[in-house]
Design brief:
Strand content: 15-25%
Helix content: 40-55%
Radius of gyration: 28 Å
Number of domains: 4
CATH architecture of the largest domain: Alpha Horseshoe
Bound molecules: zinc ion
CATH class of the largest domain: Mainly Alpha
Strand order of the largest sheet: 6-5-9-3-1-12-15-14
Number of strands: 30
CATH topology of the largest domain: Zincin-like fold
Largest sheet: 8 strands, mixed
Structural class: alpha+beta
Distance between the termini: 45 Å
Length: 915
């Protein structure tokens, strides 16, 4: 185990005291379960009345079997907002009462002093304590749900990363694993769920005491329980594990798809990892109020409703894809994370990077038609490239000490960066070799903890390949490289020679002072090449000969599978643009090329006009995932040219016309109506094309969207797959009237998928007064806390609303801070992150001043990166706005009327081929 740096961390507990078993009895005030009201808002009002405060108290008793490495007079363990009322140690049958308890608020600990030395060896520590349920969605917290005609109050938990200590005094570090036996006191008509199945229930009058079976050795952050009125559906997987989906009353059938996914993937993972699922049961529980997407508590995964449930009436491809992703992600953790846990939080990528990668594999296995591997490139790899290119970015293996730093580490770099490194690992080791290494690692460290070094060691032992020196550079260094390609003179007629050099890529084109180098998997593909070839770049420079005729195109990073960008000389960029036009490149390469050229243009390595020119090579695109990139690239240009709150100028009008025409073909070909058996990609493309075509001003599309919502409100059906587009186009093009209609949809349903669609849409409102009303709504009791963020985040590309949103944030800071302190800080970070779209010096100063006056522990990096982004926006506008405005003006005068160049059949038959 590691001692070096960790030993100096004052937030860490002593290494000489280790728990081996917990017995926890937890007793909430039973009166809270009797609270009820006819609407959710009434229930929340009731809960906020001053006399209701004591309702939220709980008390408990915990017995901990300890192993003391040496004699000690004191024991320090974690306790956050808990009051210890009694404590003693039982050593060899002799009881030593605690003389005093000292709390340390900063380190979230309690120290019990016994007044004399307790000898080394095993002993029992017994503590009685009390605490309070919170409404911050961490520790043990309250959640509201509908039970028939009334609203009631239930309890859920979220312990990752450091909140088990809010619920019972414990040694709340991932490496302090122990077994645990939970007992809860609850009313007879409710269900309690926890990591293990119920061992027995005893009745004491009005309550029952539910005791769960003892867990295997596990980390405290993976423990969980929940108390509500639940219903469930169940099935047994092909290895005999009982899997249940639990929901609040009336929703169990919405869990069918989630159950189907779990039944497929749980045994598929056992096959992949070569180890059976370690627990006797698995519950997937939908929790109405939930801060994250989902949580992999061992044996009891908890989910936000939108990540697990889909109402057949509102069933959409987007919802199903998300559910499959999240369920498979959490399932992957039962081995990677739960069975073998990172030793400390700086290795959190060992959890999240693997779940991110394996999730994609499992979804692809179950739904091969979904193009999940292509989505992995367009989502995970690209997300990592965009997260890791800031000056304030952190390495994937990142030193963290305190709860705020730990919390901030759960970000795109850890998830998608870690996932992308695993894609590179697999490519380097082969699928078989990678799996062998993982199995070795899981078997060696089962029920224990491990570091990144342990993983590399096990892979090297299993495969004989030096993975640490090759891939370790991507987890230890900050960021990723830019590979600059220069062609060398070559007399051979069958090859081209290149000189490559590397340096860190930074999104604003600045130089990295650290002089890092990476071991880069340099792959190339070329015209007429049967498959890509790979060699590894170890130092600053490298010479490379590629078997391709001079004049034929050659592309590096084939399939965009690796974390680096490529800067070619201008004539090679031309060759590649021609290759896109000619249809020579596959979708993953088209995605990578477009993303690279825009990132390089923003950083000033290539002219922005060239990025725009490259985009125009994609006019005949057929893949949804590339279209999605195109929409993003047009969004970037929109951001540069948008005049803000002023009237649109010529440049912006020309651009909008161009962007609209871009989507004219797919929008008109797809139409609003599905045909027969369409692929997911085709269904998603319809929604995207209509949303963008209308979004850039096609009046017929907007009119149809208006008619569709009216008909829907009048009781006619509306295809759930186009609802998001319909709602957004209404919000974008209507003031208070549109908001009223959308809120009618919101109020008429308890289905979270549908509510979320509305919340996303209303973030696109343009008219200032209505924007203010939207924001008031977002922070009202109508909207659950986790969903408020959705409204704010969806205003970020809404240039007209941005200044209003920012003023609203500043004016209502106290309210927002009260809503999201503690673990919710991440949400608040996302909310203030909307400021990254500003693009003037005035706003830069304003945001900077506000951040300086309102620092957020746990969102420090988000704030720093927001300022970095505003700086870059200002630079880009200064440098590129006029040149791209000219480009669009020239295009506008040269262009004739819009023509329909693709036929329905061509597009429909092309899509499935691109899988
Ligand atoms: Zn995860």
């Amino acid at each position: 185990m590691r001692r070096t740096k960790d030993a100096k961390n004052p937030y860490r507990l002593s290494e000489s005291v280790s728990p081996t078993a917990y017995f926890v009895r937890w007793i909430p005030n039973q009166k809270i379960f009797a609270l009820s009201a006819d609407t959710r808002e009434h229930l929340i009002k009731k809960m906020n009345e001053p006399e209701a405060k004591e309702l939220f108290m709980f008390c408990g008793a915990v017995e901990i079997n300890l192993s003391l490495a040496r004699a000690t007079e004191t024991v320090t363990l974690h306790a956050h907002d808990l009051k210890i009322t009694d404590g003693y140690i039982d050593k060899d049958g002799i009881r030593h009462g605690a003389r005093s308890v000292k709390y340390n608020k900063k380190y979230q600990t309690a120290t019990l002093s016994f007044g004399k030395k307790i000898g080394a060896g095993a002993c029992w520590l017994y503590i009685e304590y009390s605490g309070t349920l919170n409404d911050d969605m961490c520790g043990a917290y309250g959640t509201t749900y509908q039970d028939g005609d009334v609203w009631r109050y239930g309890i859920a938990t979220q312990f990752e990363a450091t909140d088990a200590r809010r619920v019972f005094p414990c040694f709340d570090e991932p490496a302090k694993k122990a077994t645990v036996e939970f007992s809860l006191d609850i009313p007879h008509d409710l269900t309690a769920l926890s990591n293990m199945p119920v061992e027995y229930e005893t009745s004491t009058g009005a309550v029952k005491i539910v005791t769960f079976k003892t867990t295997p050795r596990m980390s405290t952050y993976l423990m969980a329980f929940t108390v509500m009125k639940f219903e469930y559906i169940e099935a047994t997987d092909r290895y005999g594990v009982k899997v249940r989906v639990y929901t609040t009353p009336g929703k169990k059938e919405h869990g069918r798809f989630g159950l189907e996914v779990a039944l497929h993937t749980l045994p598929a993972l056992a096959d992949y990892y070569g180890m059976k699922y370690p627990l006797p049961k698995l519950d997937l529980v939908a929790i109405p109020d939930f801060a994250a997407g989902a949580m992999e508590n061992w044996g009891i995964e908890t989910f936000r409703e939108t990540a697990l449930l889909v109402d057949p009436k509102n069933d959409s491809v987007a919802a199903r894809e998300r559910i499959a992703d999240v369920v498979d992600h959490e399932l992957a953790h039962h081995w990677f994370g739960n069975l073998v846990t990172m030793y400390w939080w700086n290795h959190i990528w060992l959890n999240e990077g693997f779940a991110d990668f394996v999730e994609n594999k499992m979804v692809d296995l179950q739904f091969p038609a979904w193009e999940r591997t292509l989505r992995f490139i367009s989502e995970s790899v690209l997300a990592a490239l965009h997260a890791m290119d800031k000056k304030n970015s952190h390495p994937i293996e990142c030193e963290v000490q305190n709860p705020e730093e730990i919390r901030e580490n759960f970000d795109t770099t850890t998830y998608s960066g870690g996932g992308s490194v695993n894609l590179m690992n697999e490519q380097y080791l082969t699928e078989e070799g990678f799996r062998k290494g993982l199995r070795e690692y899981l078997q060696t460290y089962a029920y224990g903890n491990a570091t990144t070094q342990n993983l590399w060691d096990m892979i090297e032992r299993a495969t004989g390949k030096p993975i640490r020196s090759v891939m370790g550079t991507f987890t230890r260094n900050t960021g990723y490289p830019l590979v600059t390609v220069e062609e060398q003179e070559n007399k051979e007629a069958t090859t081209r020679r290149f000189k490559l050099s590397q340096e860190r890529f930074l999104f604003d084109g600045s130089k990295d002072k650290k002089n890092q180098t990476w071991t880069i998997p340099i792959g190339t593909t070329a015209r007429n090449a049967s498959k890509p070839t790979y060699s590894y770049m170890f130092g600053k420079n490298m010479m490379l000969e590629v078997p391709v005729r001079p004049g034929d195109w050659v592309k590096f990073n084939p399939g965009t599978t690796s974390l680096y960008r490529v800067l070619y000389p201008p004539y090679i960029r031309n060759e590649l643009r021609a290759a896109v036009k000619a249809g020579d490149l596959g979708p993953a390469d088209r995605i990578g090329l477009l993303d690279d050229v825009f990132a390089l243009a923003k950083a000033g390595h290539v002219p922005m006009v060239e990025a725009v020119e490259t985009l125009s090579a994609y006019e005949k695109e057929s893949s949804y995932y590339v279209w999605s990139m195109i929409a993003g690239a047009l969004g970037d240009i929109d951001h540069i040219l948008h005049p803000g709150v002023r009237m649109p100028d010529d440049a912006y009008t020309h651009f909008r016309e161009y962007a609209k025409n871009f989507f004219a073909d797919p929008a008109r070909v797809m139409t609003w109506n599905k045909r027969g058996d369409e692929t997911n990609a085709s269904i998603l493309l319809r929604a995207l094309a209509l949303r963008c075509f209308g979004g850039y001003g096609d009046t017929e599309t907007i009119t149809t969207a208006r008619a569709k919502i009216d008909a829907f409100l009048a009781g006619e059906p509306l295809d759930p797959d186009i609802r998001q587009a319909v709602y957004i186009l209404n919000a974008e093009n209507g003031g208070p009237e549109a908001l009223k209609k959308l809120m009618r949809v919101y109020d008429s349903t308890e289905d979270h998928q549908e509510k979320i669609r509305v919340l996303r849409a209303i973030g696109k409102t343009q008219d200032p007064d209505t924007v203010r009303r939207v924001l008031d709504l977002a922070v009202s009791n109508k909207v659950r806390k986790q969903d408020t963020v959705i409204v704010f985040v969806n205003t970020d590309k809404n240039q007209a609303a941005l200044p209003i949103v920012w003023n609203y944030i500043k004016k209502n800071w106290k309210l927002l801070y009260a809503r999201y302190h503690g673990d919710g800080i991440r949400h608040l970070g996302n909310i203030v992150g909307v400021a990254k779209r500003f693009k003037t010096e005035d706003m830069y100063r304003d945001v900077k001043r506000f951040f300086a006056d309102h620092p957020l522990k746990g969102a420090k990096r988000t704030m720093a990166e927001t300022l970095e982004e505003i700086r870059l926006n200002i630079a880009i506008r200064k440098r590129d706005k006029d040149s791209i405005a000219r480009w669009f003006a020239e295009r506008a005068s040269a262009r004739g009327p819009v023509s329909l160049t693709l036929t329905t059949e061509a597009l429909m038959t092309e899509l499935p081929e691109l899988r």
